[in-house]
Amino acid sequence: MTPEEAALARRPANAPAPSSEGSLDPEVVEEIRAGYRMVEADRLRHNAVTNNAIDDLALNRQALSQVDDHFSHRIRSRGVTNQKKSGRCWMFAALNVIRPQVIRDHGMEEFEFSVAFLQFWDRMERANLFLESVIDLRDIDYLERDWELLNRWGMEDGGWWNYLAALVEKYGVVPSSVMPETHGSSNTATMNLVLQRLIRTYSAKLLNRHADGGTMAELRAIKSEALAEVYRFLVINLGEPPTEFEWRYRRTTKPDRSDPEAEMRTVTDPALGESESFTPKSFRKRYVGCAMSDFVCLYNDPKNELNRHYRFDRARNMVDSENMGFVNVDMDVIRQASIRSIKANEPLWFAVNMGYDQSRELGIMQDKLLDYEALFGIDLTLSKADRARFHSDVSNHAMALMGVDLDSEGRPKKWLVENSWGKEQGDEGFWSLHDDWFDEHVYTVIVHRRHVPDEVLAYFEETPTVLPAWYPGAAGVLA
């Protein structure tokens, strides 16, 4: 049976036949044409937008007049990371949340975790998850939705906090100097494409062997062969992840330069610590003191009931980890938990839709920053709930909240955001996120349990409602 015949077979017998009613026929087109005359305002708009970038024309200068770079509470941070041409924002954001405390508590001049190390194991885990899913779905019709979603999401870069938390708990962490970035880690499109082809090649072998009557042991043997090839491929692209390494760091303590003979008496650097031997897990224990399980996910989805526990189906990167879960709460609960965390000098991982009203050049996120309505004379009013209904406003980027500017009554005016797009983007890598934008386009924050009210924490103990894998936002942040 062809795909077309299969589609017709699934069509209900009483389905209406195609109709010309509602089509864009010549009479309708002629009516629209006859009803329009270019007025002077549209002529000006036409001249402007055909000679200039639309965002330059739509930039709301009145909104810019309200901008300053002052924050009443700001977490100190050193250095700005750069994910480059990859979708690893969720990794960078999570490690950027942990990094300031590591620097502060250990008196470091600077420090950065290796993202490539966790990226390696994420690729391995996702390859394993994909192959295991193929075995699980080996008898499914290739036109079914579960199969389509598996292949759509295959080996993409995007992910959630729980993906990173599971990787850190299972594999540990290492400094960036121990497993540095490579061209493939920072420019993932081709690497992912080849990896996806490799996985699908072995997936076809799995399905063909199953069709020929192969045993589960034979399928597992093919899977083991596939994973060995994936490991080899990743080592070629990213380097082999260390199992043990020597490492030391430079402290902020400087040698005493007031003694003119100091340089003559010693050739040692008193700011440089002794080299120590670590495994990734022992390094994680030493420098990431908190358990990743101590953090919870607060979410704001106006299409679902508030104060309920939910999970996204298939929102994980490992066979042996849980799907992404959250409690759906009002934005003010998210806002107050975020304020408490920042006041405690603890940054937050958070996820947003970066496709609305933000400027990479200026480092500003503000509602109506780009005034397309005034520029084109149109109405673009759409609520957060309606944007979710049309799958047009879901989380697509993760960053770190590093500060807040509170007014005299303790209400936030704006938030300080550390991005992972390098110092050339935004205000030297930082964005000012205004509170009206926070309401509209922030969806998720990851916050330590101690900053969340007990009555909200209690919802996490309830049996979660499982949302399907195709639910808006379930695929994870991608940018």
Descriptive account of the structure:
With 479 residues, this protein is α+β, with helices and mostly antiparallel strands. It has one domain (73-246, 285-467): Alpha-Beta Complex (Cathepsin B, Chain A). It contains 19 helices and 14 strands. The strands form two sheets. Strands 1, 4, 5, 6, 7, 8, 9, 10, 11, 12, 13 and 14 form a twelve-stranded mixed sheet that branches. α7 (115-136) packs antiparallel against α12 and α11 runs antiparallel to α12 (216-238). Mean pLDDT is 91; it is low at 262-267. Residues 1-18 have a biased composition (Low complexity).
Number of strands: 14
Q: Please, how many helices?
A: 19
Instruction: Tell me what portion of residues adopts beta-strand conformation.
Output: 5-15%
Largest sheet: 12 strands, mixed
Proportion of residues in helical segments:
40-55%
Family: Belongs to the peptidase C1 family.
Keywords: Aminopeptidase, Hydrolase, Protease, Thiol protease
InterPro entries: Papain-like_cys_pep_sf (IPR038765), Pept_cys_AS (IPR000169), Pept_his_AS (IPR025660), Peptidase_C1B (IPR004134)
Organism: Haloferula helveola
Q: In summary, what is this structure?
A:
The chain is of the alpha+beta class and 479 residues long. Helix content is 40%, strand content 13%.
Protein topology:
Elements: H1 3-10, H2 26-34, H3 40-49, H4 54-58, H5 61-64, E1 73-74, H6 89-105, H7 115-136, H8 145-153, H9 161-171, H10 183-186, H11 188-211, H12 216-238, E2 245-247, H13 262-265, E3 276-278, H14 280-287, E4 295-299, E5 308-312, E6 325-328, H15 331-343, E7 348-352, E8 358-359, E9 364-365, H16 372-376, H17 384-389, E10 397-406, E11 412-418, E12 430-434, H18 435-441, E13 442-448, H19 454-457, E14 465-467
Parallel strand pairs: 4-6, 5-14, 9-12
Antiparallel strand pairs: 1-10, 2-3, 4-13, 5-6, 7-10, 7-13, 8-9, 10-11, 11-12
Helix pairs in contact: 7-11, 7-12, 11-12
GO molecular function, one term: aminopeptidase activity
Region (Disordered): 1-26
InterPro entries: Papain-like_cys_pep_sf, Pept_cys_AS, Pept_his_AS, Peptidase_C1B
